[in-house]
Structure formats: C-alpha cells, structure tokens
Design brief:
Oligomer: single chain
Protein name: VOC domain-containing protein
Helix content: 25-40%
Largest sheet: 4 strands, mixed
Radius of gyration: 17 Å
CATH superfamily: 2,3-Dihydroxybiphenyl 1,2-Dioxygenase, domain 1
InterPro entries: Glyas_Bleomycin-R_OHBP_Dase, Glyas_Fos-R_dOase_dom, VOC_core
Structural class: alpha/beta
Order of helices and strands: EHEEEHEHEEEH
Length: about 140
C-alpha cells in the first residue's frame, strides 16, 4: 500500500512551475486535454516522494482550495535544511505562515502556503525521539 497526495490547483501548470522552483520537484509527465490544454493529470517527484495534481474539473468535484475557501489538509515535507527551503519557497511565491522554529518533538518546522492555497509543513529532523519522549516533552511544554 502507498499513500500519494493528489491535489487540485486552479492553474496546475503554474503550480508545477512553483513546486519545481520552491521544492526542487521533478516533473515525470503530464496529460493535457486536447484543444483546451487543460491539465488532466501530472506527476512530480519531490525527493523520494510522489505528488499528483490536476487542474480544477468541477464536473467531477475536483475543486482547488481557492474554489472551496481553503484547505483542511497540510502536506508534510521533510527536508535537509528547513530554513533554506522556506526562503526558496517564499522567493518562489509562497506565503510564510509560521517561520522556522525548533520544536519539542525534535524537529525544526515551518508552515507555508503555496500560491494555489495548499498548506505545507516543512521540517528538518534534529533528533529522533520515541513517541513516549515526544509526549513527555509536549506535556512539559503545554503543562
């Protein structure tokens, strides 16, 4: 079994350009509708992860965060240098929602929103902790 995020963007070709610039994504392929050029499906690789995306297709219920007024989903991307990736994403057009900060659970994280309404948590693992260790630290933090 494998979980692969599939996101919908109002302008999927522009989203691909953003993900390439912001996260170093590599486009595997895209399928476009003959005539309109509308993006029906594309697949990207970001590190060792896969991301699928398409333009909006309202007839199929495929709507972007822009059309539904936001998103309830956060995409989590582990990176080697969260500060550098946040700066790169911001330069590419992302809005920084939470600046990079060290967390009690052993990661340095930040949250950005891409220009297409998708929210990303970017993280660098600083220490590997057990679930029990994370719980103890969290209890001490929120106490």
């Amino acid at each position: 079994m494998k979980l692969i995020p599939y996101i919908v963007c109002r302008d999927a070709p522009a989203a691909i350009d953003f993900y390439v610039a912001a996260f170093g994504a590599v486009e595997d392929f895209r399928m476009t509708e003959p005539g309109s050029g509308k993006l029906g499906h594309a697949e990207l690789e970001i590190g060792d992860a896969r991301l699928m995306l398409a333009d909006e297709w309202p007839d199929f219920g495929a709507l972007s965060p822009d059309s539904i007024g936001g998103t309830a989903v956060t995409l989590y991307l582990q990176v080697e240098d969260v500060d550098a990736v946040v700066a790169q994403a911001e330069q590419a057009g992302a809005m920084v929602l939470r600046a990079p900060a060290d967390q009690s659970f052993g990661e340095r994280t930040a949250t950005v929103q891409d220009p297409f309404g998708h929210r990303w948590m970017l993280a660098t693992v600083k220490e590997v902790l057990t679930g029990e260790e994370m719980q103890k630290r969290w209890e001490a933090e929120v106490g």
